[in-house]
Amino acid sequence: MTPRVVLRLGLVVVAVLVAQLTVGLDLRIAGAHPDLMLALPIVAGLTGGPRLGAVVGFAAGLAADLFVPTPFGLGALVGCLAGFTAGRVSGYEAEHGTWVMTPVVALFWSAAATMLYAVLGAVLGQQQVLKVDLGVVVAVVAFCNAAVSLPLRALVNWSLDRRSSPWHAELVTGDRP
Amino acid sequence: MAPSPRRSRRTLITVVVLVLVSITLITFDERSGTHSLTSGIRSVAHDVFSPVVAGVNDILRPVGDLFAGAVHYGALQSENQKLQRTIGQLRQQLAERPSQARELRELTALEHLPFLDNLPTVTAQTTEISVSNFEGDITIDKGRSDGVDLGMPVVGAGGLVGQVTFASHHSAIVQLITDGQSAVGVTFGSKESFSILDGQGAGNPLTAQFIAAHTRLVRGETMVTSGLSGGQFPSGIPVATVFSSHATLGATFEAVTARPIANLDQLAYVDVVQWEPAP
Known about the structure:
Shape of chain B: globular
Distance between the termini of chain B: 62 Å
Number of helices of chain B: 3
Order of helices and strands of chain B: HHHEEEEEEEEEEEE
Number of domains of chain B: 2
Number of strands of chain B: 12
Oligomer: heterodimer
Distance between the termini of chain A: 23 Å
CATH topology of the largest domain in chain B: Thrombin, subunit H
Largest sheet of chain B: 6 strands, antiparallel, barrel
CATH architecture of the largest domain in chain B: Beta Barrel
Number of strands of chain A: 0
Radius of gyration of chain A: 16 Å
Strand content of chain B: 25-35%
Largest sheet of chain A: none
Order of helices and strands of chain A: HHHHHHHH
């Protein structure tokens, strides 16, 4: 990764964090809100592979951890694993197309990562994670993250300086790469 | 094209290192000796980001409110009707209030309990509600520089709201009484009955612990903070009203649920009581 890419990725993480703390918290459905800081590493993994997904997931999770009272590092751990595993399926995009795969992976991976967060939180003695309506939280996070996954993908592509990205190619020319 | 084995190994090493760093950070945060380090980092982050978030909110909130208003139009209408009814009830209560306040002062003085009116308070505005989907908390725009500190009770909308669990220089996080980790010592009835009200998550009623089976409870009965020695709150703050109670055959304790008196969905402003729990 070049310093330019690192700087751009840092900017994207900060921008998404601000979006999460403002618009993200206002978008409440049945008391739950989207988790953009979880969607970002999943999309980064899909776009740039498992290593980028893990690094972005760690950074985004750590940034999110600064603003929640759960153990510091828990979000980083979940984000890192979510980004890494999402990156493992990035090769299948060529078969199914970016427009379909990105939201679908964001949906299922967000659901799984939210459940992992709850399980790890419970293991670490955070009783409150057992007292929320997990089904509602998982559903809201998964569907909202799927909805924002394509715009996030455009942001990640910009930070990776990919002018000829699959997103760009489809959006501008209508061609499948 | 499959990635080269060297590249795969490098990826795996990166992930393992990041996972180990995350676990180390969690361990650091959980240990009381090093918790202050992570707490300090969080405090700096809050101080840096609070003005940015507030600025962005000022710009975007009217747009968000417009959409929210359109989506929740029906709910807003019924809420408006509810508020009109509440105003009527409050006007009625206001007329009865002087005598009740005098009685309350007399009773409190008799029992040598600290009276909330004498305690200084700091009025704060709510800036964020439940940053995490798993926590019941609010962020307020007052922090250590305004006299807000860890453990201070927070009241508003007629009753106890929660307790300060994190304070940076210019903001603080308040754990709501509905949060799953919240526990408030309360007293009720003739003030000889004590209990602990546990939070059960946002929107769910609180549960009262250790109330002996077949204790006489009246629906709507007010539970106030007990202020027992070593307690986390001063005495006499209204917390919740009894919602339901029943005891199964052979049970030692009554199963009691209670609803918070404060409307935790409408917390634009709150008062932080400058009272610190005994160490």
